[in-house]
Each structure stands twice: as C-alpha cells, then as structure tokens.
What we know:
- The chain is mainly alpha-helical.
- It is 46% helix and 0% strand.
- It has helices at residues 2-11, 21-38, 68-76, 87-96, 99-104.
Amino acid sequence: VWNKWYEEYEEQTFPMLHTRFEDLLFHGEEVTKLACDCVGGVFARKFQYIEGSAKENGMPIHEGANGLVNAMVQYGNPRNRLNGMTDRDRRYASESLNGELMSKFGYSAPPLPT
C-alpha cells in the first residue's frame, strides 16, 4: 500500500508540496514558513503550537489520540520507532518497500531482525 500511495504521488503532473507529519511535529514553525514561501503565501501570524489533541471530538475512533507532548515523546524517540512491529513485519518492510521512494521522502526501511 505504501509503495502504491507514494508511486501515485510521483505520477502526478501538477505541482505538489509534500509535508511529513514528523517535520510539522518537530519543526512546525519552520516548515509552515517554508510552505507559505513555496506557495506564494505570507507567514504573517505568530506561530502557536496546539498542545491538545486535534481529535478531541468525542468520536470513538479518535479515543486515545495524542496531543503535542505525547506525540513528541512517542515519535521523537528512535528506540520507539519499531514498537509494535514483529520480526516478520520488519522483514517484509525491508524487503518490500521501494527504497528509492523511501529515500526521496526522507525515510529508511527498518533494520532486519537479528
């Protein structure tokens, strides 16, 4: 699915701006300013992080959604990167994900299990 999704981005002929969640999470103001510049906008307001979850709407599907600090803790620790992945998952990802696309979008495949 990941390969297909990103290959479809590559096939488009119209201009696109890609922003990764982790870049917004850890460099929100800088990325937002760059995005504004890229599309001809003006970054005119003071940047403000929203600390609460954006998904606090009472819907069961969003139960347990992270706010800013919890997301930074969860996604900012490289040791947590593979949490929830089995050895089989890691092997499949390493063998199946398109390395060229992963590199282009700033990702790397998980290491093979030892």
